[in-house]
Amino acid sequence: YVQAAIGSDAFAPIFEALQQESIKERAAGEDAPSLDQAQNEASHAAVVANFALWLMDHDRKSTPLKEIQGQLWQRGYEQGQIEGVVYPDVVDAMRRWNDAGHTVAIYSSGSVQAQKLIFGFSDAGDLRPLIRAYFDTTTGPKKERESYTLIARSLDIPTQDILFLSDNPDELAAARDA
Question: For 40, 74, 168, 173, which has the most beta carbons within 10 A of its beta carbon?
């Protein structure tokens, strides 16, 4: 995928953002691959792929990495090679909340594009009509109070009227603090 995309105008901002992340990681003393090492498009693609793998291995919540993953997943979903798996109780809850007039939104470290693919091509069908808004790392880090404040403002709902669900206690603490 990276080999095919590396020279395109659409990939340029992703490459630039990855380059900035590489510089930041290396400045922090990390052993991240440098994206400035590449001599041509083929080596650029290899270095970008290596850096993407490095980010995944280090569990970084990288926005440009999530963008690459989202684009890869889009191909897979559209070609029927990937299907989003959503637990039946989640689908039932989303329908109940919608029927009761509540707003359902998603805040994930996965890109908005990836979220829409997971819920649009799910094993329960297209669930996107049940979701009013999507938020990702462009909103801010999931462990920071301000991210939840921004979500509430965007939804035009007071934070105290929002139920945030997560599997991460630090994210729940940030939401509570908001």
Answer: 74
Tokens at residue 105, please? 């939104």
Question: What pTM, to 2 d.p., does this model score?
Answer: 0.70
Question: For residue 73, is pLDDT > 90?
Answer: no
Residue 106 CA to residue 85 CA, distance in Å, equals 15
Query: Which pLDDT band holds residue 42 (cuts at 50, 70, 90)?
Result: low
| Count of CB atoms situated within 10 Å of the CB of 105 | 15
Q: Name which of 33, 37, 92 is nearest 58 in CA terms.
A: 33
* Cβ-contact 119, 84 below 8 angstroms: yes
Element (H, E) at 130: none
Which is more confidently placed, 16 or 100? Answer: 100
